[in-house]
Amino acid sequence: MSSAPIRLTSDVSVSSEHPPLVIAEVSGNHNGDLGRALAIVDAAAEAGAPLVKFQTYTADTITIDSDRPEFLVGSDHALWGARRLYDLYREAHTPWSWHEQLFARAREHGMVPFSSPFDATAVDLLESLGSDIYKIASLEIGDLALLRTVARTGKPVVLSNGAATLEETALAIETIRAEGNEQIVLLHCSSSYPASPAESNLRAIPTLRDAFDVQIGLSDHTPGIGVPVAAVALGATVIEKHVTLARADGGVDSGFSLEPDELASLVRETRAGWEALGQATPRITSGEQQSRALRRSLYVVSDVQAGDTVTAEVVRSIRPAGGLEPRELSRVIGRRFTADAAAGTPLSWDLL
């Protein structure tokens, strides 16, 4: 089943008929430096990513300044263990004063910039910047008020389902559609940081696409590009990956982010994976026609005269094509030649 295409902008569409769209997620990889954030946008453009995404929140719009245990990341978390949520988000957030410059830089490169808003005030900011698309982060999938606010912009909504049940995902999609917005791209996601490939459960991709009749993609937090390429083979039309200049520079998201050369490989290899999909019906490709000319067939391999008997010594199955099919060998053995034939003559019924 193929879901209806979605036009994200006048120039960018999402469908199985187009190469998968790669979203370069900047997130907190700017490490608090606007110059670094702009450099990541430049690097993503150089790598060939058509879309770049940010996150629009402050520590105060996403949580509160509290030391209560509920406001601490679990101590066993691989990257952020025992950190206060408020401190983590204060470090990772993208200052709102940067957004205009970041959007402008992306547009200079011909990229489509957009962001994940985490409350209504963030939506207001992004609307003022002319955002063409909105992203709902996995852990906001249950914030129905935010979903309604975003849906009412009439812009396409990219929705991640990390850590959500099928019922929660269904409710989120129903909420967006109830506002008259059918432009939904659902990103299958494992909301672990970093995630193991074993957690990816990519076989769910066609199930989710067909169940909800949406364009389907992958928001991936695994190392490398193997998982996204596999996702394309299962129908993903959008791939989102975090990007940094260098993992060695550190930062809250560096451990599961791609470097620019890896992002370029992702763009290249997901396109190759899409091009390789082809048709559901096996067929001989145009490139194989030359190979078919080298298939085996029956040839006369020794000079013969009219009246000679066909034996396995004078007729063999060899390359190239041109003679009778090899399966005819048992039918021609024992017959007689009706004309002289030199070695290298393709065997035909006219010679027998």
Automatic annotation (TrEMBL):
Keywords of the record: Transferase
Domain AFP-like stretches: 297-352
Broadest EC class assigned to this enzyme: transferase
The EC number(s) this enzyme carries: 2.5.1.97
Stored NCBIfam families: PseI
SUPFAM superfamilies for the chain: AFP III-like domain (SSF51269), Aldolase (SSF51569)
A single GO BP: carbohydrate biosynthetic process
Protein name listed in UniProt: Pseudaminic acid synthase
The keyword Ribonucleoprotein belongs to this UniProt entry's keyword annotation: no
